[in-house]
Amino acid sequence: MTPEQLNAEFGIAEHLVFCDGPGGLVQARLACPWGAAVVSTYAGQVLSYVPAGEAQDLLFVSEQAAYQDGKAIKGGMPVCWPWFGPDPQGLGRPQHGFVRNRQWQVTGSDRSAGGAVRLVLAVTDTDETRQLWPSAFALRIEVTLGQALQVELITENHSDAAVEIGQALHTYFKVGDVNRARVVGLEGVTYIDKLDGGVEKVQNGTVTVSGPLDRIYLEPGQELVLEDPVFERAIRIRSNGSRSAVVWNPWVEQAAAMGDFGDLEYLQMLCVETTNAGPDRVSIAPGGAYRLGVDIRAERT
Ligand SMILES: O=P(O)(O)OC[C@H]1O[C@H](O)[C@H](O)[C@@H](O)[C@@H]1O
């Protein structure tokens, strides 16, 4: 649908407006008294969240990001689904599943009496998705902009067998200087170190970044805090439906190797992801549904 058609059907004056974004991909711009957000209808991906009074976006998007059908947009909050990371069956299917690089449909919008604005996007199975993954499904993302940004990813299993999925709200947070940022809430938590052959280690103290990092934390607390002394803020990340969290920074070499990421941009971002990753997988009964969610807010420090 064109932005004009979407505005006629789902737009909310001054609060939800659809427009053409980079690469001609349609974006939704949400605004409420507590902040503003941008959501790409392509990939069902939040690209920006700026709470009122914050000078800096909470989300990082690469200057080199591709906005092109079939490609993933590097930054914001990509949706990894129905698997996280490499193809779990080794069949050569794309990393992080197949919904972060396709168009989603707008299926709903509303504004609550309290003033929060909500946008709903969805993907359902087609002949093409069934080639990649045989199950019938409806996947929905609900983005609610209010006093915080709340994102929920809802999987409905429409097939007549149970399905097992992995997934992530793969959030790229923007930081003033990753060398000075730290993640609080993972102290003493066991993690799988993907950069050290997948061995399990225990987090000693808060998470700081001084080199490449790619870790799946198992059974983390519900709330993590990303402290950023440069931007003088703390980002509170509250997840639900998740029993793992991924922390990732590509650092120098991986940054240089990625075509859609600037060589020095690793200094300005840190991924703290709300996941069902590694051994944290979710089984959904026939006709059942599962919700994975995250709530993000910033505090001045
Ligand atoms: O480059 P992408 O396919 O978007 O993946 C980016 C990163 O996503 C996650 O954080 C994984 O744990 C990393 O292993 C991966 O490098």
Automatic annotation (TrEMBL):
This is Putative glucose-6-phosphate 1-epimerase. The active site is at 170, 273. It catalyses: alpha-D-glucose 6-phosphate = beta-D-glucose 6-phosphate. It is an enzyme of class 5 (isomerase). GO terms for biological process: carbohydrate metabolic process. InterPro entries: Aldose_1/G6P_1-epimerase, G6P_1-epimerase, Gal_mutarotase_sf_dom, GH-type_carb-bd. Belongs to the glucose-6-phosphate 1-epimerase family. GO terms for molecular function: carbohydrate binding; glucose-6-phosphate 1-epimerase activity. Its EC number is 5.1.3.15. It comes from Thiorhodococcus drewsii AZ1. The keyword Isomerase applies. Pfam families: Aldose_epim. Keywords: Isomerase.
